[in-house]
Amino acid sequence: MINKYPKLGKYILDSLSIGMYNHPLMLLREYVQNCTDAIDQAIKSGELEKSESKIEISINGGNNSLSISDNGTGIFLDKAWNILHDIGKSEKKLSENRGFRGIGRLGGLGYCKILRFITKKRYENKYSISTWHCQRLRQLIKDENQLDIFQIIKEITDFKQADYHGSSIDHFFIVEMLDLQGSRDLLLNVPAIKSYLSEVAPVPFNRNKFSYADKIDKEIRAKVPQYETYKIIVNGEQIFKPYENAVLLRGDTRDRINDIDFVELKNSINTVAFGWLANLKLLGSVSRTCLVDGIRIRNGNIQIGNNDLLCDFFREKRFNSYLVGELYTIDQRLIPNSRRDDFEDNEQREEFYDSFIRNIGLPYSKKIRLLSIERSKQRIINKENHIIEKANFILNNGYLSDLHRDKVVKELASLKNNNNGISEEYLNRIIATIHKSKHYLDQISCRINRKEKERLRSLFEIIYKECKDKNEAEKIILKILKNALKNINSIRFSM
After folding, report:
1. Residue 337 CA to chain centroid, in angstroms?
2. Is 299 helix (H, G, I), strand (E, B) or coil?
3. Tell me: the pLDDT tens digits for 338-361?
4. Residues 111 and 169 in one domain
5. Is pLDDT of 487 > 50?
6. What percent of the chain has pLDDT over 70?
7. One domain for residues 59 and 169
8. Bridge-based pairing state of the strands 172-180 and 65-70
9. Tally of domains within the chain
10. Looking at the domain assignment, is residue 206 inside a domain?
11. Does residue 41 sit in the same domain as residue 167?
């Protein structure tokens, strides 16, 4: 007899838990997403004031556990079993909620021995507890058996409802991950968790560190329907987005944000996304340590993908890291995929990326290149001016050593091939004059005996030869001269 109802095998649980995410911290994003939806629902129903809402994450290295709790709407007693055990079924609406697939809560199955969900609805005198025995799950998946997903869930879960002794108006949802394992202890790494959530979670800007926080927040709220921020606390510390007034560039240079530019991405009819870009000098790549490098895409104020998602839409991938900013999606047909590392492949996704290329990718690629060319030209000019300054020092004061003179002559000769507007005749005249110039010791006005001059000349030659940094060598030689020639005024010298 043909079975007309296909079975769902046990391996689907493995795929929907540890197989879903390529980084253990991603499951925290999923749990936070569920928390925000529950808080939104509680505020909408009048159960909760926005100012009282919060999400708390507690990491306890001592007992190897992690918990995420919110004071959102909670789950009714008569619906708790179904909601906590159904897979891929959700009452949430895509148009109103951040999560809607009904699989995010399973993320913890692969990273602990026991996963527990505890929830209570307002005015109910009992609360619900669903316990998933993850170690038993792994064993059943490994064993040779023909259990389907429904039989597996029955084998690995316990469910009970108990009397609640707190206030009847309490409402909450708690996720507990007990006896954490694997994941290189990342789920116990408090600094790593704080940094990750500051980048991806829907938390506010830090107004004490980022002067443009209010300006951006006001503009985004006016343009983006699903924009909201939430109070997320990790081990007692509130999390904020990592943006500050200045950014660190690779190479320890700092670039200050001068202002904020707002950008709007459109398709042929509507606005698909709205956001902001920091007004920087675009001196180079922003350091990854700042946690703000690259333009970030956010849906429901939760980050999609990472800082590299938009790299392929610039003429050179590295150009994305020159920029700092955020784009918030508006078109509801831009649907995050199940891993939230990109959008589902549809026409709206292509329109969004095409608009990004036209309005940001190509214009900023061109701007970055032009600024880079201008800076290169300026560096060449500064280098040429520096060579002329060193030549003038020799012409006015004499050379410090034979090697010093020869190096400056060589640098002057190189200028003749640079097409820099400096007359070749002028350079030849300077070179010829330098060749005729005297040693510094022979040009000073004070008297010094011949033996001492020779000793100092030999010393200067050795210093100039042995020092890799010739500018430093010249400074050392001048310092020796100042000490040796007491009757000479302080010498101003810059090479």
Report:
1. 21
2. strand
3. 888 999 999 999 999 999 999 999
4. yes
5. no
6. 88
7. yes
8. antiparallel
9. 3
10. no
11. yes
